[in-house]
């Protein structure tokens, strides 16, 4: 934590754990009888509970979206650039709720939690959850927090899918949905990349069909490879080129197979670090949630028909160099929203960072996001 | 309110679904939503304008008519398609007019008159490309790449079998002056046309 603390930081935050005893029926038709969600909140809920914002996280995200857990923590929460006093999601006006989703590995019930029925870890037996399951569990959380209607549900990438799903599953409980760097469904190419990641994990000899904990080991290689592949899809060719080019770690070629180019050692480092801190079963589950997401599926593939039930207003943002969920995917979503006569605003942010652009503040992104959220705040009297 | 917008808003009925091509900072759409109970979208490419639209609650879509077209909008999906002071800035105004009447039952178009007497006089006298309040640019940096006169526009409409159902002419201050009505192609600075397809009601 920097000293002194910047004025636009939410400062020290403490996660809370909420217990749920009402059985949750999942899309896969299994039932979770009991579960926990770990949650962080920033700002104050107003008297009419009209100023609540739900933050939905992406593939490897969690509840720690802003601020610091301790004075020793070096890096702030994953979306600290957008959440805080005076930031686009202004914590002086909004009550911000950020959770770790079901199936996660940062404290909410997931594969690395103990199954209360058996007393042992869920591991690979934890049910595959979908975006809709998450939204249902988030609605239970909203009930518990006394939030009848969100001022906005906001998310990037897989988080954006949750915001979109909220508008369809609970149209009366959401005023605005911000769908950022997202897509209404994964393309074959997107699914293909996820499959490579899953294969990397499941083919690691240390994976043991997901029961690596029982074998006191971790599929580190597999998870590292999965992350390396994923990471490439988060960056753009331009940003990788600018960051690494063809730069070597040492001066001359060595004619061997060690990491010689800077980009190789960067990817290895990112992959290794990730494999130490993330659960492999959770990674598999999250990629499946991505693959399955397709709100148009029940409407004969007609997204506009799916959106006819939505009542909220939408903000859709894309990033020019994002090739994972390219601007065309957002435009596809906007086209369907227009056909369904939804209120929607759309901007394509010119930024070099690829898919990661939604995490990195650029002036235009900040301007647009701030303007939209400021209007949301005015509308709900925050 | 600007006189041209004042005229336009009178043509929008409650509940009308409106598309505004080149909606600027969203002032007109905002007014139509609040005062006329209309709904709809604005298309814009200027980042500052887009931000302004968002902050006033106007649904704005970042979309470039020249490069992206309007294919993402369905046939007959709007009651009115508006284009105020932007027709002269697109690459193919003729195609935009076709698209307007594909999407909308009715089109409303406003643009500056290049045959206004002051522009004619300026060109005749100085031999340089004219500038005016409505056209405050140099020839090399102007966004107005398809300037035309009222007569040019009306000739194009005839050629395309587009029916002009109404025409109002205002001066540079957007006032609906009697002078401009007298001899529009010479004295009018900005015209506001209502157009429909020839066969529609």
Task: Give a summary of the structure in a few sentences.
Chain A has 382 residues and is of the alpha/beta class.
**Largest beta-sheet details of chain B:** 7 strands, mixed
Regions with little confidence, pLDDT below 50 for 5+ residues of chain A: none
Helix tally of chain B?
A: 9
Give the biggest sheet of chain A.
8 strands, mixed
> How many beta strands in the DSSP annotation of chain B?
7
> What level of helicity do the residues of chain A show?
25-40%
Radius of gyration of chain B using CA atoms only: 16 Å
Task: Summarize the helix and strand pattern of chain A as letters.
Answer: EEEEEEEEHEHEHHHHHHEHEH
User: Biggest interface between protein chains, with counts per chain?
Assistant: A-B, 22 and 22 residues
Helix content of chain B: 25-40%
Largest sheet of chain B, order of strands side by side? 3-2-1-4-5-7-6
Overall pLDDT confidence of chain A: 97
Can you list the strand order of the major beta sheet of chain A? 1-4-8-5-9-10-11-12
Measure the end-to-end span of chain B: 30 Å
Tell me the distance between the termini of chain A: 29 Å
User: What best-fitting shape of chain B do the alpha-carbon axes yield?
Assistant: globular
Question: Which characteristics define this entry?
Answer:
A: 382 residues, alpha/beta, globular, B: 201 residues, seven-stranded mixed sheet
